Amino acid sequence: MDQPEALLGEREGDLAVSGDLVQPSQTFSFAPYRNIVSPQLCMYSVDAGKVLTFPSFRGTNASPAWSPDGTRLMFSSSMLGNPELFVSDSSGGSPKRLTFSNGASTSPAWNPKTGNSVVFVSDRGGIPKLYQMNADGTNSGELDVPDKGYLIDPAWAPNGQLLAFSWRRPEGNYDIYIMDVATRQIVEITRDSGRNEPEHRAQRPGPARHAACGSFDRRCPIL
User: Most exposed of 160, 167, 205, 207 (fewest Cβ within 10 Å)?
Assistant: First the structure.
């Protein structure tokens, strides 16, 4: 089974940007890694051109994702021990734990159409798989696929019906697939020798031009 660090995608010296972009906002969340043990979430203002004050949490904090209305931020954190999903208000206040499992949970993706459901990645069953839950953490269940393998990087289409993700099947590499979440119909989009993953950006919806991010440095970096 992958260790939580591998599932969270931590790489020393990298800048990892995760979440969903909703136009026309210039607010986004990201997670830069600075050769320190524990990354922290940050907020960046495009208008002001600087990193804003954002709370620091214990443990590893990564994979920030804005709600479609820009009022809430969901992220993965090990502040209570195991990497689980939490949701806070837009300023990082009052974080609430949403997932409770024996494995790591990360990479939340809000349904951009309804804002009522979230798809995320968890290795609670032994290897990374896709799960779906209500935005308040209730009614969580696995999104079944007809074969084994690793499933990561969920990303919704704007219509809130189709879900792109990267799937490494037992005999192949990571390729991109599209799932109709209602019918579970799946279509393969790529097939080659490289690693293919859907693009993720974490820009906050609405007129505010801010970004949340995460850093291995306990200070948010100057970009």
Answer: 207
